[in-house]
Amino acid sequence: MKPTHRASRSTARPTLLVAGVYALLCFALWPVPLLGLLHVESSAVVAGVGFFASGLAALALFRRGHGLWAALGRMEALLVVPWALLTLSLLWRPNCGYGQGSLLFVVFAVPSVAFAVALAFAIDATRRTWQRTAFVVVGLAVALVPVLYDLGLHPQFYTYNHVWGGVLGPIYDEELAVRPGLFWFRGLTLLWVTALVLLGLRAKERRAGRARMEGEERREGVEGEESRARTRRDDAAPSAPKPLNPQTPTLTSALLAVVVLIGTAYLFSARLGFNTPGWLIREQLGGHLATERFDIYYDPTSLSPGELQVIADAHAYRYHALREALGVDVPERIATYLYPDAATKAALTGAGLTSVAPVWLPRPQMHLLTARFDDTFAHELVHVFSREFGLPVLRASLAVGLVEGLAVALEPPEGLPGPDERVAAAARYRDAAGTLVGPLGEAVASRLSPLGFWTGRGAVSYTTAGSFVRYLYATRGAEPLRAVYATGDFERAYGVPLDTLAAEWEAAVMAAPPDAEAEALVARVFTRPSLFERRCPHYVEPWKRAYRAGLAAFAAGEPDEAAVHFEAALADAPAQPAVLSTWGWLALARGETQPVIERLHAAITEADTTGGASADAALWGRLGDAFALEGRRAEADSAYAQALTATPPYQRSARALLQTRARLDAEALGVLLGTEPAAERAERLAERNDPAAHLLAARLWAEAGDYGAARAALEAVPPRAVPEAEAERWVWLAQYAHLLGDRRDAIAFAARAAEAYDAQGAVHAAAQQRDRADALRWIVQREDPVLGLR
User: What's the chain's average pLDDT?
Assistant: First the structure.
């Protein structure tokens, strides 16, 4: 019985060690935000640690005489330990995406452990020395080299890995891009498992065959001289070779078949979604416009010729502006990839909403959503320029805050308070608990490090770094900024330590007078929690999925189907303002004014009682629409006034449209809120003798892509006929004129818009329009024929 007991103890020791490793790992993950619950990040960590722990334990079991399937079953069963411990964290940390997290845990951890045991089995079958070292070296190579290949040579922000599962996308994308390629890749991992097992079995069979031959030779050595002589005579005569073990040819054939499958999978890796080369993106998008310095790749169905021309103009001018600002040039042609929607972008690059410029790739390039081009292009183009003075190979900076801070600092005016005004407002702003929301000068150093930048709130990190870098650029120019960028050595580049520069910057920022728009913006934006602070990261609520489906159905011209989805969304989240407002729009279009009034009034009252978002502009605005359609003008005006109060002052277009809508009579409002195509509603509104109706008709025509009709409708509105939207009328005229190719008119309209904003005291909006006029003026003076499309 003693040998059996010793064998049992020898078996238990590796098993207990693996279980202990898992337990210690989970105890370490529990207090860490984002890692302390069962989801994609923790699954990747468990898969990576589990690979090495399981493989080394399997080697120990094989040395003790255990078979492959017993070791594999034991190691896979031990995954229950991290699954249970990460599930246990539900007691103190909510995990709304537990179902998805459990699926990803299986997809990540189970194949990785199988791969580890199979690799250990193949190494053990060779009977070579340094087996554990060989296992660790191979494991590290498989864990790291493919990442360098995927991210270092492809324009993607995801990577799949046989050892630790992979990364599904950038940290700023809240919704995970779970692509089909992940499952194909884990199937490839299982093919590797099969190949390694077959390789190990084949090695064992060959070793067993050699052992049998050696045994036969030893038996021959103890036979008599006569037997040896007979053997020599037999050896001298021609004879057939000794047959191999009958299983060996079968194992070899099976191994070759699996290797062929693996090779085929890698051959079609782009089609299967293992990685995304540039040629695949270009093939999927289909459109290409070559300008003097750029190759713009786009979806032709998502952009009109006029919209493409505006985008090309922006490329030309922003390149010129950044070259002048930074004193450097980009020698290579730059690729801009424009994606029609977030789903397409996520499917191809793994980054759905996040705009990216992978500076480490050989060719400079940007990947943007078409709908967010105006908001993101200039920012990402700064990253392209910063390649020229970044670190070798990486072409970025060790200080992440400088990477994003430089891009924010050199962004053109966007009509909102700039980073300086926001930081100053944040420093003065306190939330209900009295916590200082905005950072001060001493926070700069923490924002420069990767951990401090990425774990903080995005708006705070970007704005703080941007304001600091803008101060450095404004006071000391571009040369020291280029010098400090790569390494973050401020004392070497500026001659003074970072603390001194931060103190100077803080004093300069805080000396500016308070900005009401910045205070309103900070109160909304700086208080948004980061991914690490959120209650349920990566989780998309059922109401949000239903709401998106409703919007898609409405865009497809199916209002009845859209209404069904909105009702489903409200059943799950009855107080969501966006859903209530959109549902109310469709209900009003069907003439159901009283149900809308009752439901919205109840939602507003409940929000007032519970301290919720009672001041949501969308709810008050839709309630005003319902009252107006019923002819209850006084109540409508009161609701519209509440909506205007709830709309932040920096949302000028939204405020102008709300006030213009409030001017309509019931009949015109009914046309505006109809479900007919936008062009049809625009025609009906344009027939009315009402400047407000003409202005809203222009917006509908623009929505339908008829910018000529939109411009004509706006020009039919007498100046100051709708004073609340006078500045915005000039802004829209500048936009439509540019889309129609009339750049000179667009310059004049943008200049009028800037004057109107100046008259209102809206300095940030005026600066944006002056920048628009300057850009168009430069384009007109340059008249570069390479831009084409004229």
Answer: 88
Exposure of 276 by Cβ count < 10 A (0-12 exposed, 13-18 middle, 19+ buried)? buried
Angle at alpha carbon of residue 751, lines to 305 and 735, rounded to 5°:
20
Which residue type does 468 have? F
Compute the distance between CA of residue 523 and CA of residue 515 in angstroms, rounded to an integer. 12
> What pLDDT, on a 0 to 100 scale, did the predictor assign at position 2?
45
**Helix 707-715, helix 691-703: angle, nearest 10:** 170
Per residue in 417-444, pLDDT (tens digit) is 999 998 888 887 755 444 444 445 556 6
Enumerate the β-bridge partners of residue 287: 298
Rounded CA separation 345/534 (Å):
24
The answer to whether the CB of 361 falls within 8 A of the CB of 458 is no
Name the residue type at position 321. Answer: A
Please check whether residue 318 is in contact with residue 377, taking contact to mean a CB–CB distance below 8 angstroms.
yes
- Rounded to the nearest angstrom, the gap between the alpha carbon of residue 550 and the centroid of all alpha carbons in its chain is 23
Alpha-carbon span 552 to 341, nearest angstrom? 12
Element (H, E) at 702: helix 691-703
User: Cα 731 vs. chain centroid, distance in angstroms?
Assistant: 31
Tally of residues, the chain: 790
Cβ contact 381:188 at 8 Å: no
Nearest to 307 by CA among 679, 749, 706: 706
Q: Please answer whether residues 765 and 415 qualify as being in contact, where contact means their C-beta atoms are separated by less than 8 angstroms.
A: yes
CA distance 513 to 591: 50
CB atoms under 10 Å from CB of 667, counted, come to 12
Distance between CA atoms of residues 628 and 635, nearest Å: 8
State the Cα–Cα distance between residues 674 and 670, nearest whole angstrom: 6
- The half-sphere exposure of 406 on its side-chain side, counting CA atoms within 13 A, is 29
In SS3 terms, 362-379 reads as CCCEEEEEHHHHHHHHHH
- Amino acid found at 436: L
For residue 392, give Cα distances in angstroms to 398, 603, 771, 775: 11, 57, 34, 33
- Entry pTM: 0.89
Give the three-state DSSP class for 488.
Answer: coil
Cα–Cα distance for residue pair 302/553, rounded to 1 Å: 18
CA distance 412 to 233: 95
